Amino acid sequence: MMLDAFLAGAHQVFAFDTLIYMLIGSVAGIVAAAIPGFTVTMAIILTLPLTFTMGPLQGVSVMLSVYVGGYTGGLISAALLGIPGTPSSVATTFDAYPMARGGEPGRALSLGVWSSFFGTVISTIVLIIAAPPLAMIAVKLGPWEYFSLIVFALTIVASLVGNSLMRGLIAGVIGLGLATIGPDPMMGQPRLTFESSVLMPGLPFLVVLIGIFAISQLMGELEDHGKGPSSDALIPDVIEFKTWAVMREVLMHPVNLVRSSLIGVFIGALPGAGGSIANLLAYDQAKRSSINPDEFGKGNPDGVIASEAGNSATAGGGLIPMIALGIPGSAVDAILMAALMVHGISVGPRLIMDNADLAYGMFVAMVVASLMMLVVCVLSMRLFLRVTDIPKQFIVPTVMICCVIGAFALNNRVTDLYLLGAIGLVGYGLKSLDYPLAPLVLGVILGPIAETNLRRALMSDADWTVFFTRPISAVLLAAALLSVIFSIRSVLKMRKKDRPATDEQNGD
Amino acid sequence: MFRKIAVAAGLLAAAITGPAQAQDYPEKPIEFIVPWGPGGGSDTLMRIVAMGLSEVTGQAVPIVNMPGVGGTVGLAEFTKRPADGYTISQIHEGLYTANKLGITELSYKNFIPVALVTSSPQYLVLSKNDNFSNLEELKAYAAANPGAVRAGVTLGGVPHLHMAMIEEALGVQFSYVGFRDTGERIRAAVGGNVDIVIGDVASASEFVKNGDLIFAGVGTEERTSEEPDVPTMAEQGYDLSMAVTRGVVLPAGTPDEIVEALDAALEKAMSLPDIRAKMTNAGSADIYLGHEAYKAYLDKLDGEVDKVVGKLQG
After folding, report:
1. pLDDT of residue B20
2. What would the pLDDT profile of A11-36 be if each residue is shown by its tens digit?
């Protein structure tokens, strides 16, 4: 029975036209994600009407290949330009970009591509084996667990602060503050909008991300113009990517690879969390369990592996609640479900029973999609690296235009462009003052989720001790506490180490 | 004399070109502003409507998602567009609650209703629990334990309105928990984190089949063809009508000929068998109200919303 369904699904996916469409989808996903400002979700929305005319499994397979390709594509601009191509590749910039600038752009890309591939495959395996029980856990989690999870996630700010804990915390608080502008997440009442139509809809996360990272990075490139050996191209012209050697290198970090992938799977399986959180969380955990955390942020391969395996694994993770229960794990999964519904397939807890060939076909499609992503990336890597040959005076304005178009295309609001400009200036100012930008972005991502779930929890039950009496919530809060203690200890240790060497007090 | 003839000729020309323009309509792509994000109920349904409209008119009907502040950002932008029929948009009951709660100045009166194209009947959905498994038991339990029943709604949104109508009809008190969309609410009910929610067939029926949720009543006049075993609220003694309807609108000031031409094109589009099947699959009842009927529906709804609006502000 199971094998029959599996074969029936595989038969449909391996049809020639399906494979061709999937290949196109894969390329489209990678390209869309590689351009800062264009997201995977946008690429999937563009594919949605096309799939109306395809069969249900064919349509979903094409969308899955866009999805998987998209989780990898963000790596390209993260590594080569230092700008996250999608919200899910913020942490990828931390080590992939220094590695690329350090003269190994090919290695950085290869590492990311292989980690993405293995992350997707591991997540698909977990999806096939453990979807029903994991989905049951995910759906039982209430607002208390979500809030505690977000509190835990906020503590990873300590890993992202760079040189100064104080400046990192300030950046995080600015991020949390920015997230409160606009309609409140519960009642939709305006907050801090000052009656201005620009602020009325709030600050969209993607606009903040592009403004903070892309604009400041591009301005930085302009400032550096004419200085140093890399004045013309962004990265010195050394193109070397040892595809197979790097594959071995990735597999030599099995603990990191599996841990990061599992983080991605679990975060992906939680409806509402997503690739951006998984990417940062996996990076944080890799840094903390490393024997030399100081190497992170300077081109450490572990950082690239963790961040890329983490975000790619959310693709399979997001399908867990969708296939097992008919509950979308992310915005992209919601669009997948809509595509199936239009074909008359009700996605619900009985999907595997009633449409087994479809469910198993999706598993097959995930594996095929990740293989396609791998093939496309390996074959076209030389082409991507050509980007680094383009002189700055061409690439900087081009990327800037893409950012502006992307920020507009998100909600089709002109006012978002004014916000983009303003946030870009803020980001540039903070960067010039040596404030780390990642904590700010983390605050913007997590703030609204924390607020929504805190209010929802207290609306469900006015008793706040529930946060400590529900076991999973209590465990997460304890983990958050441990994480803070761990961070304080390592900061104190660092200070002790630094003090004899330099008399200078930095005041932080 | 000549002048008079010239004026008359001008008038005549205007009279001829007026309808002629409407006959040519549409002669270029029609932009469809959907004031909600991609992937949601409005978006999916309106993409199907756009497909049908494009098939009938031979013009492209690109969807432009313009989400924000409960659908009011896109509508505000829509009112600024020329009233020439080449930008259309969509409203649903959410505009009423957003307006009455002071979130937007816009009301349905700022637009010309062209046609109501979809209606999703709304159900009162119970989570599987030990205390009640139908409407009467819910009423008894809620009456005995005021505030103990947790009701999942979108605060200040249409589900909130419907839940407030039920609360008032039963004469009981619920405590409200806010969720962003139907999917989130249904998930919370399946996970046992709320006790009752407002839902629809598309999002909840699979869980009902599986035994996780119970349909306690539907807000239509007669039982629906999708769920013939579910009693209506009226059958159970509560005359409530609960539905989310979505209609196509034009900016105020659009010439009548354009309104009529669009109404006709939509009616034709919505009767295409392929489009009808897709709409049903996406959870909409088979319904079409043209310009006049839709306008009458909206006026009637206005009165009904006014009755319970006070409950939404608490």
Report:
1. 45
2. 999 999 999 999 999 999 999 999 88
Q: Measure the CA–CA gap between A54 and B34, rounded to whole angstroms.
A: 24
- Report yes or no: A417 at the B interface, CB cutoff 8 Å: no
Q: Are B233 and B222 in contact (CB under 8 A)?
A: no
A148: which 2 tokens?
A: 């505690």
Containing H/E element for B305?
helix B291-312
Q: For residue A336, what is the nearest residue in chain B, using CA coordinates?
A: B39
Q: Return the domain boundaries, chain A.
A: 2-495
Interface check A347 vs B, CB under 8 A = yes
What is the predicted ipTM? 0.83
The Cβ-side half-sphere exposure at A235, using a 13 Å CA radius, reads 25
Q: What does the alpha-carbon distance between residue A320 and residue A142 come to, in Å, rounded to a whole number?
A: 18
For A171, the 3-state DSSP assignment is helix
**What domains can be seen in chain B, in order of their start residue?**
2-120+244-312 (3.40.190.150), 123-218 (3.40.190.10)
Query: Does the CB of A409 have a partner CB in chain B at under 8 Å?
Result: no
User: Residues A165, A491: contact at Cβ < 8 Å?
Assistant: yes
List phi, psi (to 5°) of A502: -125, 135
- Dist. CA A103–CA B39, nearest whole Å: 42
User: Residue B94, SS3?
Assistant: helix
pLDDT tens by residue, B46-105 = 999 999 999 999 999 999 988 888 888 899 999 999 999 999 999 999 999 889 888 889
DSSP secondary structure string for all residues of A442-456 = HHHHHHHHHHHHHHH
Strand partners, B273: none
- Segment A46-98, tens digit of pLDDT: 888 888 888 899 999 999 999 999 999 999 999 999 999 898 999 999 999 99
- CA-wise closest residue to B63 among A32, A59, A412: A412
**Most B-contacting residue of A205, A341, A466 (CB-CB within 10 A), to test interface:** A341
Q: How confident is the model at residue A343 (pLDDT cuts 50, 70, 90)?
A: confident
- Three-state DSSP class for B123? strand
